[in-house]
Specification:
This protein has 128 residues and is an all-alpha fold. It has five helices and no strands. Helix 1 runs antiparallel to helix 2, helix 1 crosses helix 3 and helix 2 crosses helix 3. The relative contact order is 0.12. It comes from Ignatzschineria rhizosphaerae.
Length: 128
């Protein structure tokens, strides 16, 4: 039982990290930021709600939550890889200055085009 809680905590940490990094890419428009927060919240809680409250919620609600949560858990691995690679690059670049810090900051914050490209790629992966 203890291992279950360790895995659940790690799952929440990885989710929070990935969702925060993609939230940073969201352009600074209030409506988009709000939609990103609501989407992140639904993704964050869908699987735990569907697992822990399966007996107390109606099936018509649990079934889509489970589908969203389980798909999100698989997609989370694909989302984590480029974020980790980029953060490793940023760490190395901090000491070597291959690319200016301003360019990296411009690329990783409020970059709607990069966010749309990544959402398109990952939507294609999920669709397939």
């Amino acid at each position: 039982m203890r291992m279950f809680w360790v895995i659940l905590v790690l799952y929440f940490i990885v989710q929070g990290y990935v969702l925060w990094r993609y939230y940073q890419l969201t352009p600074p428009y209030y409506g988009l930021k709000l939609i990103a927060l609501l989407s992140a919240f639904i993704l964050f809680v869908s699987l735990p709600i569907s697992i822990f409250l399966v007996r107390s919620l109606p099936l018509w609600l649990v079934k889509p939550l489970y589908l969203i949560g389980s798909s999100w858990m698989i997609l989370l691995l694909y989302l984590l890889i480029p974020i980790l690679l980029f953060d490793i690059f940023k760490g190395i670049n901090y000491f070597t200055e291959w690319v200016s810090a301003e360019k990296i900051t411009h690329l990783t914050t409020n970059n709607g085009w990069l966010l749309l490209i990544m959402i398109g790629i990952y939507s294609g992966i999920i669709w397939i």
